[in-house]
Amino acid sequence: MAICDTDLIRAWTQVLTLSKLKAGDAVTVLTSDHTHPQTLRCAITAATMMGACVSRLDLPPVNGEKALSRDTLAYLGTTPLTGNRAAIAALKASDLVLDLMTLLFSPEQHEILASGTKILLAVEPPEVLARLVPTMEDYHRVQAGVALLKGKREMHVTSAAGTDLRLPLGEYPITAEYGFVDQPGRWDHWPSGFAFTWPNEGGAHGRIVLAKGDVLLPMKNYVGEPITLTVEKGFVTAIEGDAEAELLREYIESFDDPEAYAISHVGWGLQKRAFWSTLGLYDREATLGMDARAVSGNFLFSLGPNNEAGGNRTTACHIDIPMRHCNVFVDGLQVVNDGKVVESLMKPARTDAAKEPAHA
Ligand SMILES: [Fe+2]
After folding, report:
1. What's the 305 CA to ligand 1 centre distance in angstroms?
2. Structurally, what CATH architecture does the domain formed by 5-131 represent?
3. Ligand 1 centroid – CA 6 distance (Å)
4. Residue 49: band (very low, low, confident or very high) from pLDDT cuts 50, 70, 90
5. Which residue in 126, 161, 180, 223 is deepest, having the highest Cβ count within 10 Å?
6. Phi/psi at 34 (nearest 5 deg)?
7. DSSP state of 61
8. Under 8 Å between Cβ of 205 and 229
């Protein structure tokens, strides 16, 4: 169902308010050929109505001839900003960049964030943005998830399908993705709602059994038959099953990069307004699949780079795999039970409430 401009402008206004946009702030809207026109129009309207000084920077797409799909997360590394000094200077001079293009995983993004500029990625369809417009409740829920990961030594994931994966923790930061940018130098993605980290280098080990209804991204497929991944010393060393395992193997092999098999970010979804079923209702090219990444109670793991967390892996291959019906434990404490978050643990700590940013 389409959404009217009024509702999308209202959603943008909510996100920009949570992101502490002030009158006079310099906002640059970053666009490319695939930017949704309604999202762009409403972003500019909302930011302008709030008194921001708004510019648009449109850049040509890259890597189309290398990627196996049109998904903007399917091929990482170089971006339209690579080597573009003028564009980088414009973004570093901005208080807030609204990324309607997808800069994720690029060194240029790190450089821009380091200058204090905030970046908010927003590329899902307009009605998905409106349904999943972030709230302070989302913020507190994700911060509660982050608090559960802080200082922990191991994440352990099991499932009735046969998953038994151990992920030693502590080397990498813990990340909260709640859908707005309330601090200088912060990056976030609207829509979101999950907490995650990265396993210690070379430490992940065990077995992952993908089961019916789990999701492969960027394929945007529901898994239809078991796929078993063997994980040793931080890398997937075998992908076994029937035709779906063969297709997954072929996709990863196409990158011809051993780093593509590394276990990357791991965590669980907390977004109660996201659903497993929505992926089946959209054309593959219309969505990134953020519902499946954020849905409350998923176990989300990925293969590929860890440079976002300060690691050295920069492979162009990145596969996110949200799994259903998992049990997730952190240092023995169960935080997800058969695909449902343990709600009593997802309440904001009193100390978090005391530090709550002054949002409207
Ligand atoms: Fe990912």
Report:
1. 9
2. 3-Layer(aba) Sandwich (3.40)
3. 32
4. very high
5. 180
6. -95, 5
7. -
8. no
